[in-house]
Structures are given as C-alpha cells and as structure tokens.
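Final report, Chapter 2: Outcomes

The project's central promise was a pipeline that accepts a single protein chain and returns its three-dimensional structure in a standardized token representation, suitable for archiving and comparison. That pipeline is now operational. To close this chapter, we reproduce one record exactly as it appears in the project archive, with the input sequence first and the structure output second.
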Amino acid sequence: MALNNLTLKAATLYDEWIKNADPRVDGYPLMSSPFPQTFIILTYIYFVTHLGPKIMENRKPFDLRQIMVFYNFGVVALSVYMTYEFLMSGWATGYSFRCDIVDYSRSPMALRMVRACYLYYFSKFIELLDTIFFVLRKKNSQVTFLHVFHHSIMPWTWWFGVKFAPGGLGTFHGMLNCIVHVVMYTYYGLCSLGPAYHKYLWWKKHMTTMQLIQFILVTAHIGQVYLMDNCPYQYPIFMFIISLYGSVFLILFLHFWYNAYTKGQRPPKHIQNGITKNKAE
C-alpha cells in the first residue's frame, strides 16, 4: 500500500514537472520522456564496459578504417554546421555573453536556436560510436572512466536542457564544444587515413590544451553570472549543473594533463608526435 502511494506521488510530481516543459520540442524524437534516452545510455555503458569486450574476447579486431574516416569527417562537418547555427541563432546575433535568458517565443530566431539545441543533443548519441569503435577494434585501454562518463552524462543532461531551456546562457558550452570537436575529429579523421598523414599530427598536446581552455571558459562564463546582482535566467538549476560540469571536467582533464605531460607518463616510443596506435591503425 505504501509503495503504491509512493508511486502515485512520484507520478503526480512527474506530471506537474513535465507540464513546465517547452512545448516547442513536442514531437522531436526522444523528447517525450527521459526514459528512452536513459535506456539507450545504460545499454551503451553495459555494452562498452562488459558485453562488448566479452563478445570480442576471442575474436579478431574489426578493420573499421574506411568507416572511421567517413565517421570522423562526418562529425567534423556536423560540428561546423552546429557551430554556425549556434552563432546565427544567438551567440553572434544579439547574445551578450552575460545574462542571456531563453527566448520562448516562436520567432524564427528562437525556433532556430531550439533546432540547434536539439541537433546538438542528438549528436551526442552519434558520438557514442566513438567507444563502440574502440570495443570492436579491441582498443579497450581507450575505454576509460573519463571517456565513458563524458559520453554518457552529456546526452542525459542535455535532454533536460532541450526540454526546458533550449537557448540562452546554457548553450554557451554546447557551442564551445562544437568548435573543439571540429579540431578533435579532424585529428581523428587524419589518423584514420593512415600512416601517410601521420606527419601532420604533431599537435595532440595542443588539442588537450584547447580542451582545458574550453572548460576554463565554460566555468568562467557561468561563474560570472553568479556575480551579477540580478540575472532572471529561467532555470538557475542549469547554471549549477553547467558550473559543476565545467569544474569536474576541468579537474579530470588537468589530471590527464599532469600524468601525460608533466609527470612524464608519456606514450611509448613507437608513438610519435602524439599519434596513438589506437587511432592511427
């Protein structure tokens, strides 16, 4: 009886909560409820950490070079497009980079931002293929906590952002992430093309620096909002989540930087210019 009452209360709270969602995203795939995406993400985690390595244990690694070339440069093109859309729907056309609130109107500009936010959210599911490729190629050392955590938490949290606040200051880190991914996936794409292109891949350390700068900018951007006397941003909880996200990933990437470039735990000698055997082969 108590369990039934608890379930009923939870369902009522969920119904009340979901009523405040942005009606402009009604009908978009995966946006009706957070449960389908949660199932997808949990399945992904289980596959890349347990099921996939077990299936591949006694199999030869797949040769996915051609698929990965298409995939990596496809993500580059998508990231360029999303960057452009974020810029043209707010960040280069009126946003102040300070207290930018969500425009809930149905103006062309506001709807363009909604579409940009949803596309960015959906792209996070495409990027789950990164880890699946690692598993199918038996590069299990690349399936780190940092990698899986980042790929899991991004789509899950962005569902709530798109559902309730598709626009405003909460999209700054999405735009920055798209810019970083243009560079990252260009690097991965060149790796996938084979040894003839490895001489162009001397800039891996600089790519890590760029990721660190990304998280510093995200943390600084959201932090300055807390210093304002009054910022009427509609969902302050998202400000907290973004600041936590920026801080956590800044710490994790600083830890990676320390181990890889300061402490001296560098790649083996056969890996030159920051080209990992995992990506190049």
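Archive annotation: The chain has one domain: 64-280.
This record, like all others produced under the grant, will remain available to the consortium after the project formally closes.
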